[in-house]
Structure formats: C-alpha cells, structure tokens
Amino acid sequence: MSQYRLLRCLAAFYALWLTGCATHSESFRVVEKNLANQQPELALQSLEKQKGSRTDEVLYLLNKAMLLRIAGDYRASTASFEAAQQRMGALSALSLREQGTSFIINDSTRSYVGEPFEQVMVHVYKALNYLQLGERDGARVEALQVDLKLRELGEKSGKHLGEAFSRYLTGIIYEDFGEWSDAMIAYRKAYEAYLQDKSKYRIDVPAFLKMDLLRLAHRLDLGEEQDKYQREFGIQDWQDKNQGNAGGELVFVLNNGLAPMKKENSVVVPNPSRGGLVRISLPYYQSRPSSVYKVRVSAAEGGVEGERVENIDAIATGNLAEKIPAITARSVARIVAKQQMAVQARKNNNDALAAVIDIIGFITEQADTRAWSTLPQDIYLARFPLGAGSYTVKIELRDRKDNIVAVREFPNVLIQEGKKTYLSYHWISL
Fold it and tell me: DSSP class of residue 430?
C-alpha cells in the first residue's frame, strides 16, 4: 500500500471516529439509564438513534434482540437474534480487504461477529424466548443448536468456553420432552463444566443440578452412578420432589444486572528507536456490580431460593484475558508498520507527510471496545415443583445483607400437570 493511500485511509477513519465514537458511547449510556429505570421501550428508541455502521450490525442486532426480550416482545426478539446469526454466518470468513484495513488502522474496523460465548448465548436466549411463549419445539431446536455450536467452537479453540449453564438448560429442555437419556447426558456435561468453572469463573455446582443428576440416575436405573453422585455431593437421603405430585414445575430465570463494559486502557511511551511517542491501546472490562445477590421465588404456601448458574462477568473477563497477547501483538505490528511508512516518507524528503502519518497513526491506535453490553452480569435459576393450577408467583430480590431490593409479582401463572412452565425476568440497576 502506498504512503498516500495509507494516509487517505487513516484520515478517513479519523474523520469517522471524531463524528461517531462519542455519539455511540453517549447513546449507550442513555440505553443503560433507561433500562435501570425499567423503561426498555425508551432504551430501544435510544438504541435506534445510535445505530452504527455495517461493521457493527451484529452488535446492534444482539442488543436490539435483548431489549425486545426485556420489553416482553419475545417473537420480535427471536427475529432479531436470527438476523444477527445470519449476519454472523455471512461474516465467518472476513475479506482480505477488511483484514488489511484493521491491520493498518485498528481492530474496531473489522466487522463484529461476537465472542464465542456470545454466539452460544444467542441460542440460549432464543431457547428462553420460545420457552416463555410455550413453544417447546422451537426451544428443542435451539438446544440441539447449542450442542452443535459448542462442538464447533471447541474444535476450533480446543478450550472450555464457560458452557455450564447452556448445557444445563439443554438438559432441562430434553427432560421436558421426556428424553431422559439425552437429558442425563446434558446434565453430566453441565456438571463437568461447573466443576471446571468453579475456580475460573467463581461459580459452584447448583444444588438443583445435583438433584437432577440423582433423580435421572434413579429413573434410568443407573445405580452405580447414583451412588457415585451421592458420595460426591454428600447426600445420603433424598427423594424426587415431583414423585407423587400431580402437578408440574415452575422454572424461573433471573437475568441480573448488565455484563461488564469494555473500555480502553492507553499507554503512551517513548519510541526508543527513532524518538517521539507511541501509543498502545488495549481493551479491558469494567464490571458493573448489581445490588442483587439472592432471589426467592414463592407461590401459594411454599417457596424456593434461586441459585446463580452463570457468571457472564467472569466469562467475558476471562475470554478477553486469553486474547490479550494476540491483541497486543497486532497493536505492536500496526505501530511498527505506521512508523516504517513515516520513515520512508522522510527518506523521500516528505517531512510533512511523515508528520501527518505519525499524528494520525498515534490518534487512530484505538482499542476495540465493542461488546454485547445488554447481556446480564449473571443468571439465577429456581426450579419449583407445584401442583396443577393457577398461581401468583412472587419474586423477592435481595442484596448481600439479605435486605429486600425489589419485589415483583406475576399473576395467573398456569402450572400444568406433567409439564414445565417457564418464567424469566430482567433486573437492572446502575
């Protein structure tokens, strides 16, 4: 690429950056504020105002889908998720031109395709949308897609992807269809994932999952496996809470808070080889802790405590930490390439061009801070066996000291015999 072409490319991006970057960040702060005020419709309007370039289309569609879900429009949410998936598929192989531009300018010029864990969560939330609508067949399709996506991503990276909750949800869906063997396989994989997640993502094996493993091992007559789980869990006496109960089960999902915000950390250091200053900019996550740490679900005369089943804050942070060496290497390579162009310009006695390349190259060395910010910080789950009938379900959200933060009631929740009823809620406070 010629010096003048590089200059035009850098200058064009700089102009776009000046006019667009601040607008995007300011608009998203408004989105967050609207969500904290329990006004998802206004958040949607704010998101539309900050709709970005074609390279950010996937990110826009993911955030739109989540806002529609929070607003209770599950069908429109699913449609937006599907549009995001289609765009992800089209971008699976980035063009050489786009890769070249990102090398010269910065990573944010590449089309956003979603982090691996975000791609899995698309299927998770599509499944939850279908379950909320009572469309179990659609949820089962997404459960199968979760398996396929995890297999695909695992083969590419060879790494564990923070997949515990997605595995657990597929098990619940398979069990809802009476597919006991498939449910058992999913619960086993979820258990293995939670064991791996315990130290890395700071999350324990849910007690609900332990009982699911015991219950299905008993149902499938897997005596040795049941005994093994009883020893591992320290549970000697247990019983199937659904046994003898002419009813069904309420499955409640709390999406708590907002995922960490990706920001930029820039360091300006002297250039040891030719003087002047160079700038290295890397992304980092800033957590946005929620005030809620406990959830209790009650109906009629009983109730259950919810458990945290996913820590998206820790998964996102861990995922970025693994990528930082590669991000740093690309940043250094860009700086070297820009400096070489400036050196060449000076050799050609074009000091003015060299100065402009240095200045614009310095300014455009920006970190890619894009992320699916409307994901929750973490997810809580409660499984509540109930007799057949119509209930008013009460949700109590509590802080670390067990003080009540908020109470929500859901009237006319129908529990059918032999079936699961799914209910979810998003709580956001900033």
Answer: -
Residue 150, token pair as written in the block = 């995890």
Tokens linked to 13: 């991006």
Q: Please, are residues 65 and 375 in contact by the beta-carbon 8 Å criterion?
A: no
pTM for the model: 0.87
**pLDDT single digits (tens) 30-53:** 888 899 888 999 999 989 887 777
Q: State both tokens at 380.
A: 């809580």
Selection from 112, 197, 130 nearest residue 379 by Cα: 197
d(CA 88, CA 86): 5
Look up residue 159 and give its two tokens: 């790494």
d(CA 38, CA 28): 15
Cα angle value 310/383/80 (rounded, 5°): 55
Distance CA 305, CA 396 (A): 10
**pLDDT tens-digit series, residues 333-373:** 777 777 667 667 777 777 676 666 666 666 667 788 889 99
Calculate the alpha carbon distances from 288 to 38, 138, 402 in Å: 17, 33, 20
User: Can you tell me the distance from the alpha carbon of 63 to that of 357, in angstroms, rounded to the nearest whole number?
Assistant: 36
3-state secondary structure of 297: strand
